[in-house]
Structure formats: structure tokens, C-alpha cells
């Protein structure tokens, strides 16, 4: 399977912030942004794997760095930055731009993990990635460490799940 350039997985989506997207602090709801992140990252994963179905396996912490206001546009850039056998790490960078002043700032970042599914919803192998820019090389070189941390987190989650019950709470 031929490796693919990270730039070939890049997706850029820009949208305006609507009043219904705002919370009581007049900034973009975190959940609205998370939905936009997942949608953009899905396209990067599908562009990389070239299969009909890629699904979100996990979302690392979404780092909310700057508020996004109604006067801003919100631009999400996503790309596949690291791959395992069947998993793809997608990095999302959110840039808010004040539509009056043209001031741009990084408002959020996130890493999501997707897997590609083939026949009968089984995991299938994905191509490796080739970084070219300084930003891509940094994200790629630090990807293995993040993958190990995700594996440890999955093990911790298995332990947690083994202790949880399905019993209805007594009120």
C-alpha cells in the first residue's frame, strides 16, 4: 500500500457563526464546535483511506484556547498526521477570524482517531503518511507518543468498564 502525503488529506471548512450557535456567554457552544471538528476530520479520514466508511474511534482533549464570537468566521483545518495499521490520527486546527478587523487567532486544537471499515464493518489497513512541511513533520514525529498514550487510555477504560454496572439506581 503506497503512503500518501499529509497535504492530500487536508480539508478546510470555513463557516460563519450564527446566533443559534452561541451559548449564554455569546460565544460558540463547545458542542457545536465538536460537531464541526468531527465532520471535517471524517472527510480527512475518508480522503486518506478512500473507503466508503470511516468512523470516529476516539477524540483526544479538545483544547479551547480562544473564544469564538458571532463576529468571527470559524475555519477548521484537518489532516491525517499519523497512522497505525487501521487507525488514523487526525489533527484539527481551528482558526477564528474577526470578520471586521481581519484578526486571526488559533481558537482550538484537537486530535481525533478514526478507523477505516471494509466489508462487514471490519477494520481494514490504511496507508502510511508522508509529512512535508515543518508543521506536518512535528505532528508526525510526535504521533507515536500520542498513539501510545491512547493505547494506555484504552486499557484504563477497559478497567473502568469492568467495574461499572447496568443496574438502575435506587432513588
Short description:
The chain is α+β, with helices and mostly antiparallel strands and 171 residues long. It contains three helices and eight strands; from the N terminus they run ββαββββββαα.
Description:
With 171 residues, this protein is an alpha+beta fold. The chain has a single domain, classed as Hotdog Thioesterase (Thiol Ester Dehydrase, Chain A). 29% of the residues lie in helices and 33% in strands. The strands form two sheets. Strands 2, 3, 4, 5, 6 and 7 form a six-stranded antiparallel beta sheet that branches. Strands 1-8 form a two-stranded parallel ribbon. The model has no long low-confidence stretch (mean pLDDT 96).
Query: Low-confidence parts, pLDDT < 50 over ≥5 residues?
Result: none
| CATH class label | Alpha Beta
The share of residues in helices is: 25-40%
Radius of gyration: 18 Å
Major sheet: 6 strands, antiparallel
List the keywords.
Thiol Ester Dehydrase, Chain A; 171 residues; six-stranded antiparallel β-sheet; globular; two-stranded parallel ribbon
List the helices and strands and how they pair.
Blueprint: E1 4-5, E2 11-16, H1 30-49, E3 53-59, E4 63-64, E5 72-83, E6 87-98, E7 104-117, E8 129-130, H2 134-141, H3 143-163
Parallel strand pairs: 1-8
Antiparallel strand pairs: 2-5, 3-7, 4-7, 5-6, 6-7
Amino acid at each position: 500500500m503506497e503512503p500518501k502525503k499529509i497535504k492530500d488529506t487536508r480539508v478546510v471548512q470555513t463557516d460563519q457563526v450564527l446566533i443559534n450557535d452561541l451559548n449564554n456567554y455569546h460565544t460558540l457552544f463547545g458542542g457545536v464546535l465538536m460537531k464541526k471538528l468531527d465532520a471535517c476530520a471524517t472527510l480527512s479520514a475518508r480522503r486518506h483511506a478512500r473507503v466508503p466508511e470511516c468512523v470516529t474511534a476516539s477524540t483526544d482533549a479538545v483544547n479551547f484556547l480562544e473564544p469564538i464570537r458571532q463576529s468571527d468566521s470559524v475555519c477548521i483545518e484537518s489532516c491525517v498526521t499519523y497512522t497505525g495499521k487501521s487507525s488514523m490520527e487526525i489533527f484539527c486546527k481551528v482558526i477564528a477570524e474577526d470578520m471586521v478587523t481581519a484578526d486571526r487567532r488559533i481558537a482550538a486544537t484537537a486530535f481525533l482517531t478514526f478507523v477505516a471499515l471494509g466489508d462487514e464493518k471490519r477494520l481494514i489497513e490504511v496507508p502510511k503518511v508522508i509529512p512535508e512541511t515543518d508543521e506536518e513533520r512535528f505532528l508526525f514525529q510526535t504521533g507515536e507518543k500520542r498513539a501510545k498514550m491512547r493505547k494506555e487510555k484504552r486499557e484504563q477504560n477497559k478497567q473502568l468498564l469492568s467495574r461499572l454496572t447496568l443496574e438502575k439506581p435506587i432513588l
